[in-house]
């Protein structure tokens, strides 16, 4: 499987991944190499990673607590303090071995430490392989508000080793699959048709490659999210607000990112039907596909009001306007669409039907 080249680095897959990494480490003369893991990847992924390393390196392992609730400045501060205590300098490097929390937070930590040290991302979840592997977005949450603090900064390379998917349960795989379904909805109707027919997760390599390629094509055209890159946020305006609400609510269990985004894609599909020309048949196709894979969630009026209040923190907003990415049809998008509060509430009614 050929590597995918972005503007500044390459995404390497499976057998090519460790060949590229070992070559890079042998030629980089890093003063120190730090490997950032969480509790899960420390146990399940680090031994596999280490078994592929050729040469003698004095790796320092830094472990953070697992989960979105720890993706915050407090955790960054802890990691920065450890880096300082272990005498990291500007010629040090960080390898982020984990899901989206580890790669987002680790990239941000590396980008800020001593005004920037090099980092390498090794995503270990399906979600992070198809989403965080391309684009250079790093950052952390501000309380329950998703990704409010961060920078766009590119890694030296990204390694996608699908052997790590064996460490995931079905729920985590489904969460990542939501982002792949999104790639079909925003850019390729035939890819959407292929994905919605997949029933298992045994052979995902080619599909992962396709999703990474789709995201890379978008980011190459619009690296700083001025226009086309906004399309990658389809389902995320409401989805992130739902995820944030469930993150801080004591009345609900946490939703995984993909689970919240799946709901967001149904809701924003309804908005697309009302505002940008998505057909009724395509809307029903979207709803049927997601509800077949993701458990239906109940929302009270209080939940909906609080979710809609959180929309004001969405990063696509400008000049006080909440901007949505919607679908003209499956595979074609419209950006910066304004939606009335009444229609937003109507979308939740449609979801509940």
From TrEMBL:
Pfam families (alphabetical): DHQ_synthase, DHQS_C
Cofactor (UniProt): NAD(+); Co(2+); Zn(2+)
Taxonomy, superkingdom: Bacteria
Domain 3-dehydroquinate synthase C-terminal: 176-317
A single BP term in Gene Ontology: aromatic amino acid family biosynthetic process
GO cellular component, one term: cytoplasm
Keywords: Cobalt, Lyase, Metal-binding, NAD, Nucleotide-binding, Zinc
Annotated SUPFAM superfamilies: Dehydroquinate synthase-like (SSF56796)
Gene Ontology MF term list: 3-dehydroquinate synthase activity; metal ion binding; nucleotide binding
Domain 3-dehydroquinate synthase N-terminal positions: 62-174
Enzyme Commission number, as recorded: 4.2.3.4
Function noted in UniProt: Catalyzes the conversion of 3-deoxy-D-arabino-heptulosonate 7-phosphate (DAHP) to dehydroquinate (DHQ).
Listed NCBIfam families: aroB (TIGR01357)
Protein known as: 3-dehydroquinate synthase
Record organism: Arenibacter aquaticus
Lineage: Bacteria, Pseudomonadati, Bacteroidota, Flavobacteriia, Flavobacteriales
